[in-house]
Amino acid sequence: MNSSGNQASIRSDPIVSDRNRLYRIAGRAQRPGRDPSRGRSEWLDAWRAKSGSLRERRGARARRKPCFSLRRGAQLLISDVLEEPLGELAEKMTAAGHEVESRRLDVTVEDEWREAVDAAEGRFGRVDFLINNAGILDPAGIEETTRESWDCVLAVNQTGVWLGMRAVLPALKRAGRGSILNVSSIYGLVGSGGAAAYHATKGAVRLLTKTAAIQYAPDGIRVNSIHPGYIDTEMIRSAAPEEVQAQLGGLIGENVPLGRIGAPEDIAAGALYLVSDEASYVTGAELVIDGGYTAR
Question: How far apart are CA 48 and CA 107, in angstroms?
Answer without folding.
Answer: 13
